[in-house]
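Example complex used in Figure S2.
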Amino acid sequence: MLLEIEKLSVQFKTESGNLLALRDVSFSLEAGEILGVVGESGSGKSVSNLALMGLLPDIAVINTKKVLFQNHPLDLNSQKQLSQLRGKSIAMIFQDPMTALNPSLTVGYQMLETLQTHLGLSKKAAKMKAISLLERVGILSAEQRLKVYPFELSGGMAQRVMIAMSISCNPKLLIADEPTTALDVTIQKQILDLLIDLQREKKMSMIFVSHDLALVKKYSQRIQVMYAGEIIETGPTDQVIKNPHHPYTFGLLKARPSAHAGKTKEHLYAIPGTVPSLRARPSGCQFHPRCNRSTEVCKKTNPSVSSLQPSPLQTSFSCHHPLESL
Amino acid sequence: MFLFFSKKALDMILTLVGITFVCFLMIRMVPGDPILLMIGERNIDKAAYEEAKHNLGLDKPVMLQFLDYVKKVIQGDLGTSIVSKAPVWEEFKERFPATLELSLVGLFFATFLAIPFGILAAVKKNTFFDYFLMGGSLAGYSMPIFWWGLALILIFSVHLGITPVSGRIAIEYDVPLATGLYLLDTLSKEVRAAEGFAPFWSALRHLILPSIVLGTIPLAIIARMTRSSFLEVLSEDYIRTARAKGMSESKVIFVHAFRNALIPIVTTLALCFGSIITGAILTETIFSWPGIGKWIVASLTSRDYPAIQGGILIIAFIIVVTNTLVDIIYIALNPRMKSALLT
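Predicted assembly (669 residues):
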């Protein structure tokens, strides 16, 4: 097991009180595995990853029962511990490559500093390594590219640079937080194929965050559906997609446009309502106001999240009235 | 590139012509007359008055006077002072090093405190440090220069006796002038051979209070600017990336944030240079500092038209040139602008 997280909660301290952004999230990750994380905006996808990286703002209060990384306990509140892992054992790729690269430093500088900091390479050795990394991610005339500034790159190229930078120290875990959302659809596939190639080649584990179910289905072995700061269903990707138990997962799957879209008069299905605001959380099950299966019990008690089994082989979910297996 | 510089040059010329024109008109609109001030208002000989007026060219229509003046300025002649009969340029040249020295030391003092203060306030946002530094800078910004100068003199010169009250250097030292900047001239070989470092320390001690007074407002402005610029940059995505790459916090702040935060700070610095040169007028009056500020104030009271016009034109020229230099530094700092210019 590469990573084990038990009961991770994150609160944001604000002037108008504490906001619970993540509640008792538990999951684990095998070495070499790709975990897909899906959910709407504000469901806690990014917060859980940033908490793992120690990159949440100071107003965040992080609580955990247990976190193991490579079988060593890890304190998510200790910047000292996390800063030793960041960039070296755990790397991260962000959504918008154009804003994620520093506009006033050259590509070369930004790549070299990572290599020199973590691997202790000389400038010359780091440069050689940077060139080979850029070539690996499919950037032509890599040596010249080291001298350019990020704004001289296209979005796809910039994301390739980000990927080259993130894998430069052979991390054990790569967190890809919507790595293709800001890119053109034609570039999306190239970038994701590259990521998967590298993941296999380097035997990395990967947390792949997306709100695009089709991509998660294609690329991940296991899936985790998040809603309002909780994991509501998790299991092997095939099983969850084929046989969703939670009404929210079911709704998400139903809301995908099909290849026949446009040929029929039917409107695309949408889950009614919106994700609850952190300031006005519903009682009981977080999803009940939008759920067509909800009953009195859903309004009163939250279907215990602890019933979720972080076992990689079977599906688990938190719902009082799950959909039956087909 | 060529287009950029020719546009800048045209901007500069137009600004200077405008300033000269406004200044030319305004001093002639102020009541008072240089000739009357010189010969006195009582029992004046009409003919002598008219003759003096004619000799100074003040009997012509204002527009013609202006055109004559511009023609001469283009030829490099700023005219002669009505009071001292010396060429304006000579008068200016003699006094400018004193003002330059004071301004540079004042700006140095302001910058080297303001940038660390601003960074500290940004990094320790909403803590005691932040409130203390920003409260202090607000107080500094609102400080009336006259009161502040006198208060410092009272405390440090009168009560504590640490610093001199006025002037540039103690009276016993006679420093041969090369650059006109005492801090440099007192370090020349001859002076060191004759007197050692004593003249240098004397010049430095004379600079302490005036440069603090002159630097206080720029210090406040630059510190606040640095803070807000850093806060903005620190919330950018690329700062998160730098942290995610495992860069140390000091590297994040001094490499990744600093370069980007510097751009607005440099602009502010340049604007402050303008306000420092003008602020020197007050400061020099308080500390009897023999610079152009004092000279312009004296010229104003005696309605010495050529001296005022010349002085203001040269100051305007210096400020305009500094601003242009800043535009160039700005380009050097911002790679996006650089490539836009070169293509």
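The mean pLDDT of chain B is 86. Chain B touches chain A at residues 236-238, 240-248, 251, 255-256, 259-260, 333-336, 339 (CB under 8 Å).
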